[in-house]
Amino acid sequence: MPQNALYAQSGGVTAVINASAWGVIEAVRGHPAHFGRIYAARDGILGVLREELIDLDHEDPLTLQALRHTPGGAFGSCRFDLGDPETHPEQYERLVEVFRAHDIGYFFYNGGGGSMDTALKVAKMGDRMGYPITAVGVPKTIDNDLAITDTSPGFGSAAKFIATTVREASLDVESMHTSSTKVFILEVMGRHAGWLAAAAALAQEFDGQPPMLILFAEIPFEEADFMEHLNRTIERHGYCVVVVSEGLKNPDGSLFSVAQSHDVYAYTQLGGAAPRLSELIREKTGHKLHWAVVDYIQRAARHIASKVDVDQAYACGRAAVEGVVAGHHSFMPIIQRDSTQPYRWRMGRTSLESVADIEQGMPREYITPDGYGITQAARDYLRPLIQGEDQPPFERGLPAYPRIRGELLPKRCPSFEVDHD
Amino acid sequence: MPQNALYAQSGGVTAVINASAWGVIEAVRGHPAHFGRIYAARDGILGVLREELIDLDHEDPLTLQALRHTPGGAFGSCRFDLGDPETHPEQYERLVEVFRAHDIGYFFYNGGGGSMDTALKVAKMGDRMGYPITAVGVPKTIDNDLAITDTSPGFGSAAKFIATTVREASLDVESMHTSSTKVFILEVMGRHAGWLAAAAALAQEFDGQPPMLILFAEIPFEEADFMEHLNRTIERHGYCVVVVSEGLKNPDGSLFSVAQSHDVYAYTQLGGAAPRLSELIREKTGHKLHWAVVDYIQRAARHIASKVDVDQAYACGRAAVEGVVAGHHSFMPIIQRDSTQPYRWRMGRTSLESVADIEQGMPREYITPDGYGITQAARDYLRPLIQGEDQPPFERGLPAYPRIRGELLPKRCPSFEVDHD
């Protein structure tokens, strides 16, 4: 009897992570000689430690297939990293206990750089502890900061939502600017890398179109310079649309959204660059302004997913499984770009070591010299990633996102207290 | 020679106001015996006062047709009300001057309750000043607060965006809640009426689904009661999705988003109920939370427009013109609901007097007794308004929204200084 496979989701979820899940599930089932059953852990690696495993054979096949168009993490995700094997040996003993109890030989972990480190730890653990386990990563992150791969599933759809939203809201601002709003600020995610902010620039069809100013996490915020650019833009166009990364920094490296002097700004821990910037602009210019913070909405917007992104997410799930069947282990499938125009990509592989805990920033040459826009190279890179529409089915006016039942396998191990928070 | 027709947009724009514009333009052109040329004013009534008129015969016919799927106000809108005829006679003299110079006999004003008052003033002015003008309103507002009509074009699409977004973001929160975010807050527009907040509840398929708590502009915010509901929800579901109207009030009637004690919260003038609520919850519970403010995005989201809404916006534009051809004046087309299941509607008419400057709130019986949800009656009313999809064409990955050229007619009148701001 072949060993069973276990799939789990980790870190911030995306509009297409479930498409990867479906890729894994479908591919595992396509190789009955290689794999036994396919399980999913509830809430990522936490579910493995807690022995909360979902038997996917008990799910409605149509619901599993619908994962391809369902946002969020259908099996639950987690923010939890395994401890160091030296200091937290009990976690690894527990993993082996659970794997052994359910005859799990394959572990597919779907996440970003931190999750690839977890997958790597699981892979190494196996050999060390006499329970060989094939651990493989499946890439995912809206931040687009995974190394080696051309892009990360989840990014393209968030990018498409942001560019669409900027184009639409900018038409609104343009309509109103003579007698009302002069400045509109949109805050997007990206603590360290400004990929999502950069994607907003795809809304432009020609020079001078919104967004006129982008504030990247990578470029320290210089107030006087920004105000000068803002005023010049308003003089020229009558209004200004600004996109700001939540991770915008002050020149001293501190987070812009956390004010130095007023501790009431503490709420900005969770986004707040837009209201803070809005306050600053109001104080300095008196212009009427509006701001928006899209937060989770941008990474959950499956209704406007990029078809390229959905296809890549699904392909990454499948490639993880096919790689295992071909005899590989401790790897992460990557997307390789063969050509930009027309866009051609294929799947490749990289070692977990090469991506674990590494954050890939945006190259400086993707940002214009003045720091407020993106270059042609950035446009050429980004444009293919938002191509194609892939609408979910709608029922009674809204996208239909079926839910898995999530029935847990009977437990076979003693209970285990996970030390976290 | 028949007289010319003038169309203008007013107040906050919507995802479908241009569909009404197209309805007016197309219908006017369908009656060459009744109407001469069709012009549009730039920036609403301000453009009339400034004699900034766009000759639509100079626009690309395909661009005009594309108005049906283009958000924002293609001709520019304004926040400007005509003064009282007693105190501001010069404004009315100016209107007559411009109308006379361009032989305008028909004025179609597309806006909300305030704009209907402007249309009414224009209608009355004509008779008084010896230059008869047929003034007609075309309804529009995302707030759904126009009287008499069953709904207002613009609302259904904003409602569909909000319900979709709540459903999607809630799946995200649900995925993360065991080890991360427990509370997600979405702030929506609605200063006085909670229609948009109510629409969020359409995301629910059954009881207990997100959004678990809605804070309406109509129901005073009781902190202790809210916290109790929040805690109970988190105990039961593990997380809580809250939707809050920007217009939420304190028990004393003051705006919730403006803190009493800290003047640094002044920025909340433009939305800020979500960050403020977030701060309160964090202080009281310590839960990890996220918040989003969709602001203009919700009323510009043409990419997920409701087909019913688009059809009604277009029909309102056409009905305004057809009503004039049938000999009516000083009216606003209304949507009349003949049946809810199946949804059947037809166009009707009401006098401008009956809608000018009137705000129609949400009936109290649409809100559940506890004040945090909507009733079946509200669901029955709302559901038909978000039905059907009507995606715009996409080009290179994004919705294609062509722009009008906006070439102005040569001026024939002396310049005129508009006293506003």
UniProtKB/TrEMBL annotation, chains A, B:
Pathway of action: Carbohydrate degradation; glycolysis; D-glyceraldehyde 3-phosphate and glycerone phosphate from D-glucose: step 3/4
One Pfam family cited in the UniProt record for this chain: PFK
EC main group: transferase
Site positions per UniProt: Important for catalytic activity: 140
HAMAP family, per database record: Phosphofructokinase_II_B2
Family: Belongs to the phosphofructokinase type A (PFKA) family. PPi-dependent PFK group II subfamily. Clade 'B2' sub-subfamily.
Activity regulation remarks: Non-allosteric.
Range of residues in the leader sequence: none
Source species of the chain: Thioalkalivibrio halophilus
SUPFAM superfamilies xref list: Phosphofructokinase
Self-association state and partner proteins as the record states: Homodimer.
Encoding gene per record: pfp
NCBIfam families: PRK14072.1 (NF010675)
Top-rank taxon, per record: Bacteria
Residue ranges occupied by any Phosphofructokinase domain in the UniProt entry: 7-322
Lineage: Bacteria, Pseudomonadati, Pseudomonadota, Gammaproteobacteria, Chromatiales
Full protein name: Pyrophosphate--fructose 6-phosphate 1-phosphotransferase
Catalyzed chemical reaction(s): beta-D-fructose 6-phosphate + diphosphate = beta-D-fructose 1,6-bisphosphate + phosphate + H(+)
Gene Ontology process terms (BP): fructose 6-phosphate metabolic process
